Amino acid sequence: MATEQMQGETEETAATLLLPNLLAFQELIHSFPEDGWEKCWEQGLTPWDLGKPTPILQQLHQMGALPKGRALVPGCGMGYDVVSIACPERYVVGIDISEIALNRAVQLFSSSPNVNHFIFLKEDFFTWHPTELFDLIFDYTFFCAIEPEMRVAWAEQMSGLLRPDGELITLMFPISDHIGGPPYKVSISDYEEVLCPMGFEAISIMDNELAVGPRKGKEKIGRWRKIRVNSLL
User: Is the Signal keyword given for this protein (predicted)?
Assistant: First the structure.
């Protein structure tokens, strides 16, 4: 009981410490709609950055439970998730609009043992048209970062980037009732409303038991398959 109480106090403290940075980050994003994300990296206001790979994604990789082939991490930041799942059987592309974040990612991982199995690109997710599609896409703190009215465009681009029968993994955060953002509140139905019309079906939606710190209890992991549509022509 004492351990659980201590853990709860630690998480509450983490949430309290995060709040000033979160408010400053939100003010910066809304003050500079064109390059707010770059300014956040410049000033170190990156409350979404774990500073390490996402635990649940790393566990799925270690269990061999992720699709092989080509993978995409949009809004990859400093690239922890990109590098953590890159391997000879999976080539991972990380994209971001922040040049600062990508430069740091390259500096941090340029000597990684699996450096031949990943790449970082400065691209706008919504306008990017790669020459090859992906077997896996991982979305975390990206869906919640965009304006809610952009979510339909998000789903359309996800559908356009993923191969038929490919898998989209969404770490749904923050599941809450707060006002404003980013991060904007999300719910399972928010994802269903935009993904299902694009031909996605949910494989599973579960609580993320490996969510970190103050994110515990506010995250679910959704695994979606893009349904292969057979032409009638």
Answer: no
- Rounded distance between C-alpha atoms, residue 102 and residue 96, angstroms: 7
Phi-psi region of 125 (alpha: psi -120 to 50; beta: other; left: phi over 0): alpha
Three-class HEC string of 89-127: CEEEEEEECCHHHHHHHHHHHCCCCCHHHEEEEECCCCC
Written as tens digits, the pLDDT of the chain (233 aa) is 333 333 333 333 334 334 557 888 888 888 988 888 999 999 988 888 999 999 999 999 999 999 999 999 999 999 999 999 999 999 999 999 999 999 999 999 999 999 999 999 999 999 999 999 999 999 999 999 999 999 999 999 999 999 999 999 999 999 999 888 999 999 999 999 999 999 999 999 999 999 998 899 999 999 999 986 654 44
Contacts of 24 (CB under 8 A, 6+ apart): 45
Rounded Cα–Cα distance for residues 220 and 211 (Å): 9
CB 123 within 8 A of CB 95: yes
Spatial neighbors of 176 by CB under 8 A, at least 6 apart, are 185, 218
Q: Where on the phi/psi map is residue 208: left (φ > 0), alpha (ψ -120 to 50), or beta?
A: beta
Q: What SS3 class is residue 68? A: coil
